[in-house]
Amino acid sequence: MNNFKITYSLVALFFFFGNELYSQTLDYKKTLDSIHVNKNLGLWHPMLYITSTYLLTHDSLPESRRNVLLLNKIEGYVEMGLYEEALLLRKDLMEQGNLSIKNQKILLYEVSKVYEQTSLEYKSMQALDQVAALYDKSKDSTYFSEYLIRKGSVFKTFKKYKLAEVYALEALRMSELNDQLDQIAEANALLAALQVNNSKKKYDYLIKAYKSFEFLEFEYRRSQIAANIGIYFIEKNEYDKALQFLGMAENNLSQANNPKHLSEIYKYKSIAFENQKRLDSALFYQRESSFLYNIFQNQLGGVKLMQLDLKDNLLDRVNEEKEYLNNIYSLKNDKRNLLLFVSFTCVVITIIVLLLIKNKKQNKQIQIQNKKIAQQNNTLALSLDEKTLLLKELNHRVKNNLALIVSLLKFQSKSLNNPIEKNKLLELENRIRAISFAHEQFVYTDDLKEKKVFNLQNYIFNIINSLSSISTRNIDFNVDIEAFNSNIDTALPIGVLINELVTNSIEHAKIEEECLMVTLKIKHVNHIIHIDYKDNGVGFLQPQNSKSLGLFIISSMVQQLRGTLKRKDSQYTITLKFK
Question: What are the CA-CA distances from residue 486 to residues 437, 453, 562 (Å)?
């Protein structure tokens, strides 16, 4: 008999909780269907209401379902222009750190839209680069055309039309290859927007996009494309056709009420009627456009009020439940008071329980504080990574620009027939190359540590080898450089100085032997750098001009490092100070 009762109880519990779970599943599916219908009609305000209500009234919602609803909510915020709310909600999702790759892509696309609409091109592209990394990680190129369309859209927003068209055409090719009709429609819509100088192509792309959205029964997008076709005919001064398509755009939303989009349609209908001299109709639609836009502005405020109302209702319900529980607890306390005198043990147990509760609260507060500290550290780490990335990009561009300048000088030198002019360009090329060597060795490194020092030997040898390789003279270098470290502020002037001294010897030293002998010694004592330089020249191939650019640069570099310079014929004795 007892076994029968236990079995009956288990069956009853199974049916009770099973029915509850089944009803919640149906409720969730109906909610998703309703969200999808509202998105298709561009009804972002009611879509947000449905999503927020479901989230607030289902506390025990599985995390996967909760994430799907939050992503829809972010999309609604972005479409309504509530970018701050979208970014705050995105922060909550990212802190969880357990989004699927599919949901990460959806989130990053919405983040890219926010930064695109707020004119932050770098951040918008950064979000899309993360999407590309997810495609590489998953090894799945399904719907890669969507990524190409988003990137093309960002380029279009920032008026990089050629790049945008390259991405849009590739997206169209891939979506047609994979028979993805929705992406074909979006690619045609993007290509239409890029045809600023070819009205025929623009119209063709718009018609293709309209037919695709019509076949897919995407009412909101079909209405948007019809409106764009109407605007196209206004620009062509064909106002009857413009009104025809603007009317189609309005009729496609006959079962909905999207005040922002309808406001845009009515604005252009007013323009068309005005150009037809139908001023009464123009004035009517102008007023309707302003009225609908005001409704849209009220909806923006209504979204926030809706959130507050829903939270207040939920709070009232929670308070009622707490009051009910408190009443029950009071009854239990009355009974407990009657039993307090039964045993002193109950008192001891009560004290222990209270101490455990207090300890638990303290532990919870410590966990909250630790979580805040971890979040702050994460924010600081992200900021540091971003600045490091920007610095690396800057150094990379400086390196490329220096290389480009050297290449241009080489190219220009080949076109000159005058040896003097050719030699001047070669000198300038060597000076820039000395700076480039310093940048590569002292700046363009992976770790980018502040105030980092490097061995000066490699830098000087790079300059000497470069000059030797391009000279037609037979040169023998006797180089003795003491091993010591230097920063960029000290090394660069020394490199330029050595470049000028060696160049001067190669160009002007007149020698009796077959080989030009160059001797260079560098050492440092007590933060003073000593440089001894000489060659075996007995005269100059050309008269030495004391006002030449080379000697001026040598003197300037010495002054920059607060040094001294002594010269006797082709022998230099130089002292410099560390910076």
Answer: 14, 5, 16
